[in-house]
Amino acid sequence: MSGTKKSILFFTSFFITIFFMSIVGVIFRPFLENIDDYTYYNIVSPILYTIYLIFFMVIESTIRKIYTKRFLNEHNVLLKVKTNGFNLSVRLIIYLAIILIYFISLFKDFSIESISIPRIVLFILSFLIIEFILRISNKSIYGYFTRDYIIISGWDFRLSLPIIYGANVYNDSDVYTYNDIKDYFIFTDYIELYLIADQGKLVFDIDSELSRKFVGILNQKKIPMKKFN
User: Fold this and answer.
1) Is the pLDDT of residue 83 over 90?
2) Which residues pair with 200 in a beta bridge?
3) SS3 readout for the chain
4) φ and ψ of 34, to 5 deg
5) Which pLDDT tens digit goes with each residue over 117-129?
6) Which structural domains are found in the chain, ordered by start?
7) Average pLDDT, stretch 156-174?
8) Mind listing the pLDDT tens digit for each residue in 175-224?
């Protein structure tokens, strides 16, 4: 996804999330005003910010889904194939956000007393919930090959941050043309399509039958096989 698209996606989701946070604040204000500081800082606040993070991920995913779905509805799918999952950096960004939510106060004033049991338990639960969401997301993302486009679509809950312009594409949910593909290479059980200008790659799981179909489409589009020196 280009820097411009990432920026639009991020800031649209960001402002929707801010609006959601405002609504939650108004609704729960009477409750929040009547709880003690320990409960708020160690239980309520981390839970709320975890919910906000997940809400932000859902909004970004929904916008991606709407965008790619429009192209899927307008073009006949020649081939549908499972993407090869997420790279490690995707998980690290989200896990870093969770760590900051629960432990950012420790960076300011570290002490054993500030590490409460409720905070640790909630951190572990949040970690497991995020991992579950990412696993479900990974299973839902497919590549759809049409006559003119390669469409990566699904419930993609990965964070799209505008500051990571230099980050390589790795099965990012988006719409690609065949002109975006420089070359490809077939491995034993997966195929890699390399994007122009070293932007990254699209990776798909294949078997012998899918491999034959892939080669047919790529040859038709005059996309060469990559040569390793």
Assistant:
1) yes
2) 169
3) CCHHHHHHHHHHHHHHHHHHHHHHHHHHHHHHCCCCHHHHHHHHHHHHHHHHHHHHHHHHHHHHHHHHHHHHHHCCCCEEEEECCCCHHHHHHHHHHHHHHHHHHHHHCCCHHHCCHHHHHHHHHHHHHHHHHHHHHHHHCEEEECCCEEEEECCCCCCCCCCCCCCCEECCCEEEEHHHEEEEEECCCEEEEEEHHHCEEEEEECCHHHHHHHHHHHHHCCCCECCCC
4) -110, 10
5) 888 999 999 999 9
6) 3-220 (2.30.29.30)
7) 78
8) 999 999 999 999 989 999 999 988 889 999 998 888 899 989 999 999 99
Contact (Cβ atoms closer than 8 angstroms) between residue 191 and residue 173 = no
* Longest pairwise C-alpha distance within the chain: 68
Strand partners, 194: 183, 201
- Please state the pTM of the whole predicted model: 0.88
